[in-house]
Amino acid sequence: MFSTEIDFILPKGYLDPDGVLHAEGVMRLATAADEILPLKDPRVQQNPAYLTVIVLARVITRLGSLGDVNTKVVEGMFASDLNYLQKLYEQLNLDEEPVTSEPVADRQFDERSQAFRVVGER
Fold it and tell me: How many domains in the chain?
């Protein structure tokens, strides 16, 4: 069966304003809209790195007992948890086998392959 969600546990956990630690969550597969619509957001236009925050807020469907995972929650995460979620997003949403004519051993990836990319960007 095709799974559209994955459970995760953050390495450190998100500490909410009340001091409650939230570590267990669920991330769903991204849709085209999840990657396209945030590009119109003024925060992304001013700072393209903010795309990561918005996309993660859209695809994380549950985090601990929080009622809503929004950009403020993602902004408040520890850097190691943000890095973990970016890698999880990549594993969940990118093709398992990149389409290329080069042999796997000869492929070189730049640091952008570890972060979010705009649809169509290589």
Answer: 1
